[in-house]
Write a structure and sequence with these properties.
14% strand, seven-stranded mixed sheet, alpha/beta
Length: 236
Amino acid sequence: MENQFERSAFIIGEDGVEKLQHSHVAVFGVGGVGGYVVEALARSGIGEITIVDNDTVSISNINRQIIATHDTVGLYKVDVMEKRINSINPNAKVHSYRCFFLPETADQFDFTSYDYVVDAIDTVAGKLSLVEKAQAVGTPIMCSMGAGNKLDPTKFEVADIYKTSICPLAKVMRYECKKRGIKKLKVVYSKELPITPIMQPSEPTQRRSIPGSIAFVPSAAGLIIASTVVRDLLGK
């Protein structure tokens, strides 16, 4: 009889499928990058997934976020993502948190309970706090660097933060990691020079500028992260 992870077992074996089913991955941020991370993890058979985000789906998310459709606009992203995970794998255990991860909210999370942590959030302070919390207890973590204002998904690479170049966010993270004594950090980043947006929203916002994005760039970053997490968990 067929089962939904049969094709996965063909290449990672039944032991590999079982290993993933007993793994717990936490994904912080389920937007353009993080949503595709969670999607791939669920389809890979990760048995326990924690998702953290306080945003709701907006109309402007539809061009690039896997959970964003006209039917989900206005709903909390973690609620939509949890329903999607359960639809993909009803046996998965899902923990969803409607909050932003910040240094002030960090104590809500037990990093010893995770086998892997994925950082797909926007703020540098949040990213650094995630890294410090995960590394303090020896939990592997992978961070997403900037995916905005990019058009070429083939420019993404996986590297240690201190081996990155070009990406403005990675530059800030290198500096801040060095200040904090963080000796290594696995990231996905793009070597593509950021594109200067040719227009901005007609309605005023609190941000100086909003990065442009398109369907195939954050999704590529998310799938690269998910593949790295799965292979690391399997020891591949």
